[in-house]
Every structure is written in structure tokens, then in C-alpha cells.
Amino acid sequence: MHRRTLLSAGLAASALAAVTACSGGGSGGGGSAETPSELTTIDFFTDKAAWEPSFEEMNQTSTSINVELKFTGYSDPTAYDSFIKQAFRTRDVPDLFTWHTGGQLAELVEQNLVAETTDLWTEATSNNLVPEGLIDNYTHDGAQYGVPLNVAYWAMYYNKPIFEEHGLEVPTSWDELMANCDTLMTAGITPFHQMNIIFEFVWFQLLLMGQSPETYEALQTGEASYTDPEVVTAAREWGRMIDEGYFVDPGVQTDPQTLLNTGEVAMAYLGTFFTGQLASIGAVSGTDYGIFVPPNLNPATSDPQMVIETGPLVAGSGSENEAEVLAYSSWWFSDEAQNAWSTARGDVSFNPNVSIADPELSALSDAVNDPATVAQKRYLEATPLPIYTRSTEVFGKFVTDGGDPMPMLEQLQTVADDYWAEQG
What we know:
Strand content: 5-15%
Helix content: 40-55%
Distance between the termini: 23 Å
Structural class: alpha/beta
Shape: globular
Number of domains: 2
Radius of gyration: 22 Å
CATH topology of the largest domain: D-Maltodextrin-Binding Protein, domain 2
CATH class of the largest domain: Alpha Beta
Number of helices: 18
């Protein structure tokens, strides 16, 4: 198995100067990152319109490199994606924009629409500003494109008062987790949240990487089949849990943060962005809820598995302010930038040197940065688009109906066979 281990490291303050000075001019690792001598405004586009206050806060910090962002936010992701693609057909190439990793980033790279950032990553890696494994999400044909806007660690949120009331401990094995679920079921409490849209795939990724991380990774490259025994074992456990009522009705309209905070569900497997959603309804970290790394389904899988979701900041190739955008991208890796960003968002940072005030996120970050923890890509970004598209349909149906997983797995393998055959 290809291990993508997350490591923590100390860093001297001089790293900021080193990383913002890096330039790709001589190595072919990207265009030159040029810090402007006077304040420069670069156009920034994103599908995260609600994040405008956070970026306004960042403008107060980025004056240290004489760069500020002019924010344009979209609330409709489909309209946003169309806008970005159409912008490249005009002379108004976007300076800086948020995008998606995986196949959608590769599509822009293959059309030479985005600036290479290999030298920025080399410098950031050498200064221990990023954990190992994160770079995989930004690599295409051996080069890097974009820098990480954010990361989210996928972990299990749980209602602490419910655990305390029923004498439950944070589980360290799958058997312990299931025993907790049985106690909750007996008390009339639904153990888990689950959705049949948007995040319909997440329990598949959790169960499969905990059963066989090698198989989870091999599915991403066509070296494993959806009908392999390891996949079938994980899917059957998923089906058993659905059929036995371990999950809330996936069609429920109540927000997951409300379901967890009110105790309608005891646990929710979500990314660390969920912390902000809980805070928005007044839930207190460490008091109302806790977070733990889910145990592996297979006890023979000894290393903890952690899905890292990440989205990129991307520089448009040939944009009017490309050199300044690359300077901003380089600065974005720094302790200065990431401390400010973590504070503005109330979330974790990819930079292991950033202090986290939230007690539960801090403990999770320590667990993530344990050398034994293996980083995995999220299923959505790791899976070729035609296969993922079909999975949204069959996983959504399975989450709703449960039952025998074999028809679902066979359908996915048929799509996978066609896709990988086309790749030669």
C-alpha cells in the first residue's frame, strides 16, 4: 500500500521569508512568484460566497506582501463552474479562483489553463509547512497545480451528554463501536446520521478503507474490482447497519448539526467543517460534542485511516497578475497566513505549525499528525468522474433501501470496466 503519512514538525519564523521568496523561473516548476513593491489587488472568484467575511479578514493580513483580494462569490456551484470555464474562452483570464481537486483540476491542467506551482510545493514541503500526502491531491503527471485553500479531516462527531448518560466510552475497535450502537438502539436512540445525496458515498469510504486500505486505493486506479471480496465485506457491513436501523432516515430534512445536538442521532461522520455548523447553533466543543477517529472495520488494519478533503486555490495561467498571484499562493502556505485563516474560519489548517484553540479539533489534529495515521483521498476526488457519477445514483439508492449490495457493486464495476478500457 502507498502510505501517505501525516507528520507534524516545528518551524522557524524565517520559513515565511523563504517560502514567499521562492521562484520557479529557473527550474521549469512554474512561473515566477513576484511580491509586489506596492499594494496590488488581484481578482478572486469562488463558489463559497458565504466565506466573504473570512477573506476580508485575510486582506488585513496579506498587506504584509502588498496583495489584497477583490472578492466575487457565487452561491450556485453549477453556475460558478460554468463561469470559470467560460472565462478562459475570453481575454479576462481569472487571476485566482477556487476549484476542485481530482479529475476536474486535471481537466484544466491538460488544457494548460492553470499555472504550475511545483516550486511553491517544493519550498513549502522543505519547510514542513504541509503534511505528507496532501500533495497527492495537487499532482498531475508529476507536477503540482494550485495550493490548498483548506482541508477537512473526516471524523466521527458524537453527542457527549448521550455518551455520558449511557456510560459509553470512545471506541477503539469496530466491535466496541457496534456495542455502543447496540446500547443506543436499546435506549431508543439512532446511532448514526447518513445522507442519500451529496455525502451518500462517505460510509462506503469509511468501511472500505477500514477493511482494506490497499483495496480502497487500488479501486482508484482500476487495480481492484468493486466485486473483490474486501469490497463486498465492507458493503455487506454497510447494508447490515442500514437494515438494522443504525442510521437515521436519510431523507430527513433536519440539518445534521441539529440532529446531533438534540440527540436525535448520537454520531455523525463528517468533515471538520461540521464544527462551524455546530458552533452556528450554539453547540460547545468539548461539552456538547466530541470528535474521534473512527476505528477500522478490520482489526488486522492496524494503522488509523484518515480521509483528507481539500479544495484548491488556483492561479489562471497567463492572467494579468499571475506573478503576484503566485506570490500570494506562496504566502498562503506560511504560518502567518494559516494562523490568520484558521482564526477567521474557526477550523483546522493544513499547516501543522498552526495552533488550534478548539479543544476537540486540537486533539483530532494531534491524532491526524501521529506518524501512524495514514492519509486517504476522499472517494469523490479519488474516483474517476464516470464511476463517481454512477455511484451517486447507486449509493443513494442503497442508503435509502439497504438490502443486498451485490447489484450495486456489479453496476459500479461495469462502469469501471468501461472507463478503464477506454484509458488503454
